[in-house]
Fold this sequence. Notes:
- There is one protein chain.
- This protein has 11 helices and 14 strands.
- Helix 2 (32-42) runs antiparallel to helix 8 (215-225), helix 6 packs across helix 9 and helix 7 packs antiparallel against helix 8.
- The protein is α+β, with helices and mostly antiparallel strands.
- The protein is globular and about 65 Å long.
- The relative contact order is 0.15.
- The termini are far apart.
- Strand 9 and strand 10 (240-250) form a beta hairpin.
- Strands 1, 2, 3, 4, 5, 6, 7, 8, 9, 10, 11, 12, 13 and 14 form a 14-stranded mixed sheet that branches.
Amino acid sequence: MAITFQEAGDNLQKEWDDTVASSSHGTIFHTWKWLKIVQKQTGTRFLPLMAYKGNELVALYPVFIQKRGFFTLAFSPPSKTYLVYLGPVIKGYDALKQDKKESLLVDLQEALDTLLFSELGCNYVRIRSPPGIYDSRYLSWAGYSVGAQYTYRIPLSKGIENIWAGFDKKLRVDINKAEKAKIEVREGELADLHAISENLSRRFQEQGLKKYEYKEYLTDLYHAFYPENLKIFMAYFDGERIGGMVTPCFNKTMYGWIGIPKSDFSGPSPNDLVQWEGIKWACANGFSVYDIMSAGDNPRLRYFKAKYNPDLCVWYTAQKYSPSFMKVIDIMSQ
């Protein structure tokens, strides 16, 4: 039976969110409120696609359409949103037999490509799948260029003492030094969120990247998700902010989403302590997984994140051009 799409409206928000919450690979970034805020931030056309086989809902596929000059582009997720991954949510995926998983992924992507390329005239599509869908062949078979990406995840079921014992020895020493240096980690509020955003913007500018405004976007997320589904941890020394991070919380998973990447503080690193406090909070509040988010292609970032002794988890980035767009690129490159 062929897959058909229905574009969800606000009246289907509960069914959408219930499907996300019931999935092992559904994230807070897939939730209706988060996606609508992303739409506002990016000025894109949001397609909240609900995929059906007959009358049965089988998947969700959030897609954002953007016009750039003569070209129509599709993203899941779009740029300039601090989102690492998004992609499809397959209903009841873990309970399906392997042949059903494969057939559903293939049929779903075929239906999506028909919609995007044939009906909407997209010239380019980029998809970043969520961790938990370990099969990327359906994207390759559909003609996408696929690359493996990774994130680090700490399973919290082993308990805080075992998590601490698994840390790199130097990391434990650094966290203890930060505590002895009287660095204090507190739960933050909106002003702290803005401070983290401003620090990130400065860091991007130092790296020669274009500045982009995130204040309104983060404020909207704060009002939509704080405090139940959004926590902020800030490090202070003598009353001054010296580190911090923002951690969305959803479906027993805490995400180390964004944070102050570098501090001018001359003492022990505050961010190791911030991360540790976030992990402790997640354990104490019944969470199952702490997602450090992205293993980083940069070896320096790999070292910073791997020292927490996390599990490595794969996800995928995939892109595809329409044949006509490829011809334009070929002509322009000559």
